[in-house]
Each structure stands twice: as structure tokens, then as C-alpha cells.
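Bug report (template v2)

What were you trying to do?
Predict the complex of my protein with magnesium ion.

What happened?
Run completed; filing so the output is reviewed.

Input:
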Amino acid sequence: MNLKEVKLVTTAYLPDQLILTGPMQVAFAGRSNVGKSSLLNRLFNRRGLAKVSNTPGKTQSINYFYIDNQIYFVDLPGYGYAKTSAQERIRWQKLLEHYFENSKVLAGLAHLIDIRHEPTEHDLMLHEWTQPLVKRHLYVLTKSDKVSRTRQVQAAVALAKHFQIDRENIVTFSAETGDNKHLILQWVTSLIE
Ligand SMILES: Nc1nc2c(ncn2[C@@H]2O[C@H](COP(=O)(O)OP(=O)(O)OP(=O)(O)O)[C@@H](O)[C@H]2O)c(=O)[nH]1
Ligand SMILES: [Mg+2]
């Protein structure tokens, strides 16, 4: 995978717009504003392909990026934004439920968590809910540029304990500096092989 060709192919708002079969997919999930779109832009080396915003809740749809005619990267809508209307939240939940429970081609889920904050109850829900549904998980502690190296290690150790996962499934990452971008790409590549 060389990420030469990146195409935004589909934006899904409704369950019947989802892509559930075909080439394999890797999805990126996490609370609103955690840095999903920024991470994707950094992987793609393209600013602005995935929409980034200071306003939480920017990505309300499921966006599919087709990479090198081989694999889809799926930018999932963020959760846990307080100002989201109840109606919108239900729509979002139904969409994600349908996606996780019916996708035949989802090989891995990258779950993003802000390195400065404890995982939320929604994070824990996503974690527990997707364990039996997705084969491989990577936990990405985002915005690592905002804390010291010591705090980065502490956050990874705390998350491993909290979620009862192996430390080796956790990476710290900064979209600002590109730190550990190669580890995320390595993980994606390991899904393909
Ligand atoms: N310092 C720093 N800021 C970041 C980093 N990643 C994202 N941000 C900032 O965090 C904000 C939210 O980033 P997005 O990439 O839009 O987050 P998102 O998870 O896609 O948000 P939604 O689409 O609302 O779910 C923006 O202001 C980004 O510039 C990072 O690694 N370091
Ligand atoms: Mg986004």
C-alpha cells in the first residue's frame, strides 16, 4: 500500500447507503473532535481531503476513501457531542449499528482516544460492543504533541489497564507532527497480508 491514489468515493447518511461488501475496509472511530479526520489527512499526506474543524460533530456521515484500488479507509462520525440533537444521535447510532453488525469486509477498527482525557462511557461502549464484531483493533491515543513523553507512556499504560487490552495494541499519534504515522500504516498493512 503506497497511498498514491486516494479517492473519496461515498458519503453515507443512511443504512442503505453503506458499503458492506467488496474490497476490505479499515474504519476509524472515536468521539467527536478526537482527530479522526486529521489522522486520515496525515496518512494521506493531503490537507483537507477529510474535513477537519474546530466545531465538534463535523463529520456526520460515514465517508469512504478508496486507497490504491485496494482498501477503503472509513471515517466514522464522532460520538458524544453534547449539542447533538436526540434525533441526530439516534440516526447516528442506527447507522453505526448497521455498519458494524452487517459489514462483511471490515478487517480492522482503529479506535481513537484523546491522550489528554480518560476514555468516556461512549468509548467503553464502543470498545465492548465491537470486540466480537471486528477481528482486529488498534487503539490510537491522539494529539500526543500536547503532552510530554512521560505522560504519553502513562496514558498508554492506563488505557491498557482500563480496557484490558495488550499494550502492543496501543499507539500514540500526532496529526500535527506525524509522530508514529508509520505504526498506524504498519498495522493497516498487517490487515491486508
Ligand atoms: N495539537 C493537535 N491538534 C489536533 C490533532 N489532531 C486533531 N487536532 C485538532 O483537533 C480538532 C478536531 O480534529 P478533527 O480531525 O476534525 O476531529 P474529528 O475526530 O474528525 O471530529 P468529528 O468529525 O467532529 O468527529 C481540530 O481543531 C484539529 O486541528 C493533533 O494530533 N494535535
Ligand atoms: Mg471528522
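What did the reviewer find?
The chain is about 35% helix and 20% strand. Residues 6-192 form a domain with the Rossmann fold fold (CATH 3.40.50.300).
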